[in-house]
Amino acid sequence: MIAVENQAPVSENAIPKDASDGFVVPESNAFGQSFRDYEATVRLSIVENTYRLNHINQTYDFVKRTREEYAKLNKAEMSIWEAIELLDSFVDESDPDLEEPQIQHLLQSAEAIRKDYPNEEWMHLTALIHDLGKVLYHSKFGSLPQWAVVGDTHPVGCAFDESIVYHKVFLKTLVNYYFKENPDYNNPAYNTKLGVYSEGCGLENVLLSWGHDDYMYMVAKANGTTLPSAALFTIRYHSFYPLHTEGAYQYLMNEEDRENLKWVQTFNKYDLYSKSSVHIDVEKVKPYYESLIKKYFPEKLRW
Ligand SMILES: [Fe+2]
Ligand SMILES: [Fe+2]
Asked: Where does the protein principally reside (predicted)?
């Protein structure tokens, strides 16, 4: 059981499923390309440029300052569903698989999880809201650039791991490292394996590159959601591919992180899977999700 006081519990019998367990993960998307196949995508240059800027600009100081600013939650007051509607006009340019409107991506992943885990309503709601932090694009939220909203995340304040996407870029015979242009790269306080952290310190104490994941986590937590810690962990780390997919940075985790990691790995399959062309009838499923929102969140949230 992974629950703390005031939070809805994860059922004892809820086990994160393996990809092979009753859920077939397709190997290619609607365009016949492999998921996250950055080389194959026609949008490569936009994707690569977003990561170039991300690697150069996401310093320890930038993340600390930005996190403090958004922790004030003084940008807007709106319900979860209003945030979904606000987000719906955006397309995530860092993501070569995603051409669908955001509301479709949110509902597709939620509905796919609902099918496989009918009794875990907290997972359905987690999927529905996992990307809502992308409201950071909106002028009300400071119109943050792509590199500070979307894309994979990684720790700052310690050395950049080789598993980070675009860590190394090949230009014919040349190898390029965008991280070399990040001021932290040459700072001895930040460029060792542990940097400012200690072994097993827990991800709670680690700063990750700033983006929609951490922001939505902050919003959910500060507004008193009753979602379980597995849900908050999933929202916060769903773009932390170096950890949940590549297995890097494991030495920063504590026991609770290791427990919750299974859920973010389970969730990830649905996040990727749902980036397909199955169209969900919004009006048909809306009452169900409205009821979940009502159960786990206040009517209006501070953002
Ligand atoms: Fe996301
Ligand atoms: Fe997503």
From this structure: cytoplasm
